[in-house]
Amino acid sequence: xxxxxxxxxxxxxxxxxxxxxxxxxxxxxxxxxxxxxxxxxxxxxxxxxxxxxxxxxxxxxxxxxxxxxxxxxxxxxxxxxxxxxxxxxxxxxxxxxxxxxxxxxxxxxxxxxx
Length: 114
Known about the structure:
Blueprint: H1 2-27, H2 31-56, H3 61-88, H4 103-113
């Protein structure tokens, strides 16, 4: 009974992180910030949700572990690939009032010189 209540609370916290991720996707000013909000908050939210479900239903631990590993691998990897693709096509972030530094472009220019 205690584990079920604890699991429900953890799943609720995970759901709140997923809600914050969706709000962040809507509210952030540019594509790079939207990807960051969606990836970080949705990864944490999914993992907390899976943990809560696992505490409430102990027979699902194997499936939830596989799902958690899948989320841990694919969310950051897909976000990284999308950010590099956006950079490659020339989409720049909206950095109003900030000095921007593009290390990836510098690295790509150095590789072209070789």
